[in-house]
Design a protein that fits this description.
mainly beta; Neuraminidase; four-stranded antiparallel β-sheet; 2 helices; 26 strands; about 0% helix; about 50% strand; globular
Length: about 375
C-alpha cells in the first residue's frame, strides 16, 4: 500500500444550533454506529486531569445526505448519566455505546472507577438515554468485575466487550476481562504473562486470526511489544494467551495512547485485511499526564491475521493529514458499499511548554 491509497478528509460539521460544537479535549472516547450514520463522543478533559463539565461531556455527530451535524446530547438527557470522568474506555454493541471505568479525580489513584454504563440509542435521534450502572448477573458463572482503572482499552467483538490493562490503584495492569452483554456476566481471562502492566495500550481484534492482540503501551517507557489472546474454541472455552510474544514488531516505533482499529464486518471484503494504529505519544512528557510529550501522526498497518508490522506510512506533506497527537480516540467501520474508514476526534499535541488540546474531526478512507 502507498500513501496514495490513504485519503484523509477533515470534517467540518455544522454546530448544534443551541450548544455549538464540542470543546477541545483529550482522554475521551469515540464510537460509530453500525450503519455509519452517527459518531458518539463522550468524556475527556479540556484542562489536564480535570473531567469535563457534564454539559460538554456527550455529543453525537450525525450524517445526513453526506453532511455532518453536531448534537449536544448532554442537555437533552439531563442528570441521569455517569459521573464526569477522564480516561474511560468505550465501545459500541449494536445500538448501545458502552463506557467502562476511568477516573473522576485529579491524581492517578484518586477516584478511579469500575462502573459500566450504556448509552441506549435504539429509540432514535433525540431519544437517547443512559442505562446504568449495569450490575453483573448474580449467576455463579459471573466473575467479579475488573478492578477500578483508567487509561485502559475496551473493544467489542460481536456482543462481547473486552477490557485490557490500564492504570489501577496498585499500578499498571496487564489483565483481560470479557463482559457478555446478553447474559451480563464478567469473565476474567487472565494476565498477559509476557507483557508488563501498561496504560495506553492498543487492543485490536483480528478476525482472520480469531484473536485479540495487545500492542505497545506505556510501561514506564514507551513500548513496542505485543501478545496474542486466542479467542474461545471448543477445546478452550474462555480462550488463552499465546505462549510467545508477537513477531514482526521490531521495526514499530515504541508508543502509547494511540488510536487503533481493525476492519472485520461480515459484509466487508476480506482479501487483504489490516489493522491500523495512528500516531500516539512516542516520547513521554517530563510532567507526566499534566504535560505533552513527543507525538507522531504516522499510520501503522498491521497484518490482519498475525498482527505483524506491514508498513509505516508517514504524513504526506502535500495532502490534508491530521497533526501529530496522542491521548485521542478513534472508531472504524467497514462495509461493502462504503469501504474501510477510520474516524478520529481531538487529542493532545504540542510539548511540555505548549501543550494543546484539539477539537478537529477527521475521516481516513483506506483503499486496499
Amino acid at each position: 500500500m502507498t500513501a496514495g491509497k490513504i485519503n484523509w478528509t477533515k470534517i467540518s460539521a455544522k454546530p448544534d444550533p443551541q450548544h455549538g460544537a464540542p470543546c477541545s479535549r483529550s482522554s475521551h472516547g469515540l464510537s460509530i454506529s453500525p450503519d455509519g450514520s452517527r459518531v458518539f463522543l463522550y468524556g475527556g478533559e479540556h484542562v489536564a486531569r480535570t473531567p469535563l463539565e457534564p454539559s460538554q461531556s456527550l455529543w453525537s455527530c450525525d450524517c445526513e445526505n453526506n453532511e455532518w451535524s453536531w448534537r449536544n446530547l448532554s442537555a437533552a438527557i439531563g442528570s441521569s448519566a455517569p459521573s464526569p470522568r477522564v480516561a474511560h474506555a468505550q465501545a459500541i454493541v449494536n445500538d448501545r455505546v458502552y463506557i467502562f471505568g476511568g477516573r473522576s479525580g485529579i491524581s492517578m489513584n484518586e477516584s478511579p472507577l469500575n462502573d459500566l454504563w450504556a448509552l441506549d440509542t435504539s429509540d432514535g435521534v433525540g431519544n437517547e438515554k443512559w442505562v446504568g450502572p449495569i450490575e453483573p448477573s448474580t449467576s455463579s458463572s459471573s466473575d467479579e468485575p475488573p478492578e477500578h482503572r483508567s487509561f485502559h482499552k475496551m473493544i467489542s467483538v460481536g456482543t462481547d466487550l473486552y477490557v485490557f490493562g490500564g492504570c489501577g490503584s496498585s499500578g499498571r495492569l496487564n489483565d483481560l476481562h470479557k463482559f457478555d452483554t446478553i447474559h451480563q456476566t464478567w469473565s476474567n481471562l487472565g494476565k498477559a504473562h509476557l507483557l508488563k502492566g501498561r496504560g495506553g495500550a492498543n487492543l485490536i481484534y483480528l478476525k482472520d486470526g480469531h484473536c485479540l492482540i495487545v500492542v505497545a503501551g506505556f510501561v514506564g517507557s514507551e513500548s513496542n511489544d505485543g501478545q496474542k489472546f486466542i479467542l474461545s474454541t471448543e477445546e478452550e472455552e474462555k480462550g488463552t494467551w499465546d505462549d510467545s510474544l508477537l513477531e514482526g514488531l521490531d521495526n514499530l516505533r515504541p508508543r502509547s495512547v494511540c488510536i487503533s482499529a481493525s476492519f472485520h464486518h461480515d459484509d466487508a471484503a476480506t482479501d487483504d485485511n489490516v489493522a491500523l494504529i495512528f500516531g500516539g505519544e512516542v516520547n513521554p512528557s517530563e510532567l507526566g499526564h499534566e504535560g505533552a510529550g513527543g507525538f507522531e501522526n504516522d499510520l501503522i498497518l498491521l497484518d490482519g491475521k498475525t498482527g505483524a508490522l506491514k508498513e509505516t506510512i508517514k504524513a504526506a506533506e502535500e495532502k490534508n493529514w491530521p497533526e501529530p497527537r496522542g491521548w485521542s480516540d478513534g472508531t472504524s467501520i467497514s462495509t461493502a458499499d462504503k469501504g474501510r474508514s477510520l474516524y478520529l476526534f481531538g487529542g493532545l499535541t504540542g510539548d511540555d511548554q505548549n501543550p494543546k488540546r484539539l477539537d478537529d474531526f477527521w475521516c481516513c478512507d483506506i483503499k486496499m
